[in-house]
Amino acid sequence: MTAEARVKELEALLLAKEKELESLRKKKWHEYIDDFVEKWYNENNEQVDIGLIKCGPFTVDVMPDYVEKELYKKSFKIMFSLLKDLTNSEHK
Question: Is 37 contained in some domain?
């Protein structure tokens, strides 16, 4: 790969990262948390299914997945707000 081709490749990568950063800046933090939890839950729902209860030989899901997701989203938002308030109060 020539130096000029490498420079063009890096410029394209930089431009893509700038667009991604701008997109994150425009997105509100609660939307980012919602998107993160959706992705995280879909990847990990087998390990974090809090509504799954074993009763003898039976396994019952007493809490629908959408309720679990909402609980996770609310928890993350509370934690984020707390951290945001703590970091803002340190600078005052």
Answer: yes
Domain total of the chain: 1
Domain-located, residue 58: yes
Q: What is the pLDDT along the chain (92 residues), one digit of tens a residue?
A: 799 999 999 999 999 998 888 877 777 888 889 999 999 999 998 888 888 888 899 988 899 889 999 999 999 999 988 988 888 776 55
What's the residue count for the chain?
Answer: 92
Distance CA 34, CA 81 (A): 14
Domain assignment present for residue 20? The answer is: no
Give the Cβ contact number of residue 68 at 10 Å. Answer: 19
User: Which residue range forms the structural domain that includes residue 82?
Assistant: 28-90
Cα(37)–Cα(77) distance, integer angstroms:
11
Euclidean distance between CA atoms 19 and 25, whole angstroms? 10
- Look at residue 8 and tell me if it is in a domain: no
